Amino acid sequence: MERAPVTDFNHPPIQLDVQVNGGNPPDLSLGAEAAYPRALQISVTDAEQVFPFAGNAANTLMLFAGVARFGQDSFVIPHEPGPDAGEDNIPEDPDNRFDGSLEVDHGQRLTLQLELHLQQQQFSLLTSQGSAAFAALANAGLDTGNPFGAASDNALIDLTGTSPTRQPLGPKDFWLFSDVIAEEGSQLNRLAYQGITLLQTGTFATPGVNEILVPHVGQIVDLDVAEATQVAVARTLDAGIVDALQIFPGIDDAGNPTSAGANRLLIFSGTALCDFSSQIDNILRRGVVRVRLRFPLPGNLLFKGSATVVALSSIHGNDEQPSTFRSNAARVVTDPTDPANPNPLPQPAGQNLPGGELYLLIDVVARGAENGARPGISSIAYQANVLVQDTEPDLDSISFSLPGQGNFVRSLSLLVNGVDLTLFDMKVALSGPVAANASPFAVVVESDDLQNVGIAQAVVILPQTSFTIVSNLAVLGTAPSETVTVTGTGTRAVRTGTLNIIQDINK
Amino acid sequence: MHGKEFLVDLDAADPSQVATVRAVNLGVSDGLQAFPASAQLKSANRLLLFTGTAICSQGAHDDDNLHRGVVRIRLNFPVAGSTSFKGSATIAALASVHGEGFQEDLTFAAENAITLTDPTDGSTVDNPKGLPAGELYVLIDAAVQGDGSVLNRIAYQANVLILDAAPDLVSILVRPSGTQVWGPTATFTQSGAAWDYQLNLSGPVPPDKAPFQVNVQSSDQLNVPLSLVVNVDALESSKDFLNNFMSANIPPETVTITATATKGSMRQQSATLVITAVK
């Protein structure tokens, strides 16, 4: 299959919209065209695309993630596992929309046009300054007794009203494109996606509507990122951002509107070694993989939103029967029991996973028949993007002034005369005041020329204040003309100020 | 432990090896790898995102054994000199699989992924092409099983924190020519007077990032014509630009001089020339 030439994004289109739901209460997730589609808007100090070509300056990252869901025509009652369920259409996902025109099967390569559905007036005037996208198999049924296959060849995201081949799509919106195929007898049921678009904008989008929850069904597999035998190459990145907002959904699990103010972006990645297999021949086994991310949220860290992508990373089957591998939906929660879900999860037997931490929940399904080893999902790759607001201040700036003048700048010129000390003041400022009941905030400050500018100390900022001024620091009169960098280190932030020393020996 | 049964080397710059490659570079106020934690990994100021679909086309040979190996993707992003690696988080998953359907056991796997600056991951992966260290590489432990099975493609996203020591533009200061003291504002009581400006960076320009370029613009191009890109050279953290022109016909006004770094954080700073009287 791979050897056939692939012309990117030039195949018959198959169009999905992440906000189309199943339309049949009470479970609107049945037949929806996406599972947990999320959109985050993140302001950063600056941003640019660097490959394949340099983009213009941007200050905003639009991040989309979720699972796109194709169609099916299996005539199987969802949530009714049994020996006869889907007997004739094992590769299909009966939870997906009943629409043969949305199927990916029969060996026809199609171009997915996934509308991420954030049509708002402000975006109609903007142009994407760069992008990056990821698409992988999330749910595939494979007739492993015959030649089989499924593929997502590529991925692209854009803010546009036309396809990559310049065909009109409709109103300008964010779209994700991917060329997909499933060979005869196989079916691609769901596609994992994540995409970012860079924009230059000064305003947040208007948050969207409620999320469609996917009911949890089946057994739970508990994993912990702290155990390398449970999660491979688990990583967490913690980066400071200017601001951020979860745009979609616009309501959090507690029913409150989402709000801006996030100042940290957390990125969790890893491969969850779930080893989730069918346990009885030819019966769908459903379950939930719960990954403890080991990131507690103390009182100063407020959970503001998330967007998660999960995809199949290791599958195992045989020629005994067709096999089904599904990582259907995923989201991050702060309560391991997910009480907002129509089917909350129990605690593990004999354990009590704590609340107030981050957990990744992945809904999975496997099916097949034993032939030496059980068919199933050996592992699932994930990336969870989480927004939090740290309400504690951090170091904001180091600045200087001539003594007593109070005119602080990050770069100060000082004349020295070869003999006398030249004095100056230094201001160490935080991003906000230290809480009244908190300990004093210490910033370690050090110059890179201790001989001529002898600064190497901890500067303390007291509760209910946001800065400290250290007066009458000195530069030696014999200092050469040079630039001295003074570096301050806070909790995470490192900031610098500079002294431009000008030796004016003739003065 | 990396599998040794195959090694697929791919280059993100070659679209026949990696599909729809993208890389973006984001400025962050700070960044660290929080898990696994390491004191050495703190203080990043850039978050890099790399995405693509690796066309590995790795078959399982003509047997029914499980074959384990490595797919290595060269991202073509040097991390050396004034740029240092501070941490990473990487996702890799199955994007395209094919099987022939007559094997008792079939396996397709992107078992885990990591992003490094050492293509050999501490001499645990061969390097037959002599790939250089000091660049970013995604290493994916992959596996495939089943006669006729092919692991065609793997999708990836690498999130990388780096510290770019290239300085920021921290100020532009001005003064009347012939005077000593720089400041954010300079006042002129006589039209047609020459003036100086000074660009100050947060530190010296590393040789591998030189020159540091700044676009300088005047808000009154008629009377204070200034619109050019100037350089701050290697190892300099401050530079003076002397005896700039001001029209003899300038009216009383305030002219804003704006300096914008052309790369990195593209930070913008400004100073003002205040003309108080025309003599």
Q: What does this protein look like?
A:
The complex is a heterodimer of chains A (507) and B (279). Chain A has one helix and 29 strands. Chain A is an all-beta fold and 507 residues long. In chain A, strands 12-17-20-19-7-11-3-2-14 form a nine-stranded mixed sheet, with no helix packed on it. In chain A, strands 1, 6, 8, 9 and 10 form a five-stranded mixed sheet that branches. In chain A, strands 13, 15, 16, 18 and 21 form a five-stranded antiparallel sheet that branches. In chain A, a hairpin with a 5-residue loop joins strand 9 and strand 10. The longest helix of chain A is centred in the first third of the chain and has 4 residues, at 121-124. In chain A, 54% of the residues are buried. With 279 residues, chain B is an all-beta fold. Chain B folds into two domains: 7-164, no CATH class; 169-275, Immunoglobulin-like, CATH 2.60.40. In chain B, 0% of the residues lie in helices and 58% in strands. At the A-B interface, strand 2, strand 7, strand 8, strand 11 and strand 13 of A face strand 2, strand 3, strand 5, strand 6 and strand 8 of B. Strand 13 of chain A pairs antiparallel with strand 2 (18-35) of chain B.
The most extensive interface between chains reads:
A-B, 100 and 91 residues
Strand/helix succession of chain B = EEEEEEEEEEEEEEEE
The low-pLDDT segments of chain A are: 1-5, 78-88
Q: Strand portion of chain A, in percent? A: over 45%
Largest sheet of chain B: 5 strands, mixed
What's the short version?
The complex is a heterodimer of chains A (507) and B (279). Chain A is 1% helix and 51% strand.
Features:
heterodimer; A: 507 residues; mainly beta; Immunoglobulin-like; 2 domains; nine-stranded mixed sheet; 1 helix; 29 strands; 51% strand; B: mainly beta; five-stranded mixed sheet; four-stranded mixed sheet
